[in-house]
Write a structure and sequence with these properties.
- GO terms for molecular function: 2 iron, 2 sulfur cluster binding; metal ion binding; monooxygenase activity; nitrite reductase [NAD(P)H] activity; oxidoreductase activity, acting on paired donors, with incorporation or reduction of molecular oxygen.
- With 138 residues, the chain is mainly β.
- Helix content is 0%, strand content 37%.
- It contains no helices and eleven strands.
- The chain has a four-stranded antiparallel β-sheet with strand order 1-11-2-3, with no helix packed on it. Strands 4-5-6-10 form a four-stranded antiparallel β-sheet, with no helix packed on it.
- The chain has a domain of 84 residues: Rieske Iron-sulfur Protein, CATH 2.102.10.10.
Length: 138
């Protein structure tokens, strides 16, 4: 069983019966969990995430994350705040891929952010936070 979190850290606190979101098949049922300051917490059912679309999630510390599920079934969580405008809008951005890596483009100024690393593809000095994410099977 693959227990790597979407950030790529092997093991990353995954318990038995938990698969990495990045390894989850597109039709699998399960609960998406994000790793926060107090550990893993559930955010939504995997089936609630539409491939290619984002969803905003309120974090326990009051911040926001943007969740994305790609067409292959991988799930990613990055900060929802656009660092160029300060607006909480990345969950509403357009998704795509560059050099085989998934990204989201801000709906405001269109800067692209790598969903796996958080790096801005258009300004190497800028990044958004990346959160470990997993899918817990029922």
């Amino acid at each position: 069983m693959d227990t790597r979190a979407a950030t790529g850290a092997a093991g990353a606190g995954c318990a038995p019966g938990v698969r990495s979101a990045a390894g989850a098949p597109g039709t699998a049922a399960g609960v998406v969990e994000v790793y926060g300051p107090d550990g893993w917490f559930p955010v939504c059912a995997l089936t609630a995430l539409t491939p290619g679309r984002g969803a905003a999630v309120l974090l326990p510390d009051g911040g926001q994350a943007a969740l994305f599920r790609d067409r292959a079934g991988a799930v990613y969580a990055i900060g929802n705040r656009d660092p160029f405008t300060g607006a909480q809008v990345l969950s509403r951005g357009l998704t795509g891929s560059a050099a085989g890596r998934p990204y989201v483009a801000s709906p405001l100024l269109k800067q692209r952010f790598d969903l796996a690393s958080g790096a801005c593809l258009d300004d190497p000095g800028v990044a958004v936070p990346v959160y470990a994410v997993r899918v817990r099977e029922p």
